[in-house]
Design brief:
By secondary structure, this protein is mostly helical. The chain has nine helices and no strands. The longest helix has 14 residues, at about 25-40.
Length: about 190
């Protein structure tokens, strides 16, 4: 059996209880109270029972507490996966989207995510998914624009025939026109 790791000398049990009383994070409070019992001379097994964990986890708490103090007992956010594009690739992507494609060079008239995936692979040999490109574009401040849908057989010249030319109903009524009176049932009332 190995020797137990000793706790920092700049704290004691009462100081940790004081910190636990002020702390807002419940998990940190539980860990501080478990470590306070160790400072008071209790066994690591007893501290693990206070914390509701195994002795190995109490050892991990001691290591974290010795390195970073009471703040080390707060659960941090996981760092997540590594970004697929670095800063220079992001800047190049933003620049190419801003300038737009050159049809003779790029073979497209407007950028789609699929085309940008291909461009990134050709330029940087970086293989990314379309959703990744969309997410990167969104973080760069770009929004997806799409044209209004049109029927394939629509004739622009005949469209003028079907447009409404008469003024709206509220413009047709004269100044002195009174609205017709209706009863509570919805029908017209008798003239006065």
């Amino acid at each position: 059996m190995t020797k137990a790791i000793s706790l920092r000398a700049d704290y004691d049990g009462t100081a940790l209880r004081r910190l636990a009383k002020k702390a807002k994070d419940a998990a940190q409070v539980r860990r501080l109270l478990a470590l306070a019992s160790i400072y008071d001379g209790c066994s690591r097994q007893y501290a693990s029972e206070i914390g509701g964990v195994t002795v190995q986890i109490v050892r991990d708490w001691v290591v974290r507490f010795n390195e970073r103090g009471a703040a080390g007992l707060i659960n941090g956010k996981a760092p997540g996966g590594r970004a697929k594009l670095n800063d220079t690739q992001r800047q190049a992507l933003a620049k190419i989207v801003e300038s737009g494609p050159i049809p003779a060079v790029h073979g497209v008239v407007r950028w789609r995510r699929k085309d940008l995936v291909q461009w990134l692979f050709q330029e940087f040999r970086v293989s990314v998914d379309e959703t990744t490109v969309g997410r990167e574009l969104k973080t760069l401040g770009f929004a997806k624009l799409s044209a209004r849908p049109r029927h394939y057989a629509q004739n622009e010249l005949e469209g003028e025939v079907f447009k409404k030319t008469s003024p709206p109903r509220w413009q047709r009524s004269g100044r002195n026109a009174r609205p017709t009176r209706t009863s509570k049932s919805g029908g017209p009332t008798k003239p006065e």
